[in-house]
Amino acid sequence: MHIDIITVVPELLESPLGHSIMKRAQEKNLLTVKTHHLRQWAVNEYGQVDDYQYGGGAGMVMMCEPLANAIEGLSKERSYDDIIYMTPDGEQFNQSTANQLSLKNNLLIICGHYKGIDQRIREHFITREISIGDYVLSGGELAAAVVVDAIGRLLPGVLNNETSALFDSFQDNLLAPPVYTRPADFRGWKVPDILLSGDLKKIEDWRYDQSVERTTSKRPDLL
Ligand code: 6GU
Q1: How much distance in Å is there from the Cα of 88 to the middle of ligand 1?
Q2: Which CATH number applies to 169-222?
């Protein structure tokens, strides 16, 4: 999968996508992520990409021309399955959206800043608008990093068997069961006997029961 990201602050994406599982995904060439600074398509020598909003009011709006040129320029090199705008008024991102997007080949993600992008870009280019929750971030970059991470780890070959996404919370609308590691007794706090029993069938049943119990008490809305 290839993901292009248009942003005015590429630095915000570097660290989240440059380590751990996202780093491995890119090293294995299962995922390529390229950030593009919107200033490359600025309207003048001052690097202008935003302007005052019509009708008045505080805050700048990202202009049509740089965004249209960026989108059209990048679209000449690849055909995008989706052109996504990260915005707090988009559809709320969840595991099901991550699963859907992980099946695509090429995505273009646009990160808004300031008051957002000119409405005409949303109407004429954007195919999907995504929010990561009901709160406002200073820009779409951190949200884009969340989305790319959630998608990237689902790509076949990114996770090994041990970290398989199949057992993640939410993958079956259940929260993941509790986990333990050595020692089996820490300050008298014991690991449940069943996990030490070696009976794989019983362990599997116990984990499932724990998942259901956890979901019932913490997130009944998922059931
Ligand atoms: Cl995608 N962008 C911004 N700026 N704030 C958000 C968001 C996105 N999702 C939740 N809050």
Answers
A1: 4
A2: 1.10.1270.20
Task: Find the DSSP H helices in 33-188.
Answer: 64-77, 95-101, 119-124, 141-152
Residues 33/160, Cβ–Cβ less than 8 Å: no
User: What is the 40 CA–ligand 1 centroid distance (Å)?
Assistant: 24
Mean pLDDT across 113-139: 96
The binding-site residues of ligand 1, defined as CB within 6 angstroms of any ligand atom, are 86-88, 130-133, 135-137, 139-140, 143
Residue 24 CA to ligand 1 centre (angstroms): 26
If one counts every other C-beta atom within 10 angstroms of the C-beta of residue 37, the result is: 16
Pocket test for ligand 1, best of 136, 147, 149 (most atoms within 8 A of CB): 136
Which CATH number among 3.40.50.720, 3.30.930.10, 3.40.1280.10, 3.40.50.2000 corresponds to the domain 2-152?
Answer: 3.40.1280.10
- If DSSP codes are grouped into helix, strand and coil, which group holds residue 87? strand
Query: What are 118's two structure tokens?
Result: 């000119």
165 band by pLDDT with thresholds 50, 70 and 90? confident
pLDDT, tens digit (0-9, with 9 covering 90-100), for 26-56: 999 999 999 999 999 999 999 999 999 999 9
Domain locations in the chain as residue ranges: 2-152, 169-222
Mean pLDDT throughout 170-193? 95
pLDDT at 172: 84
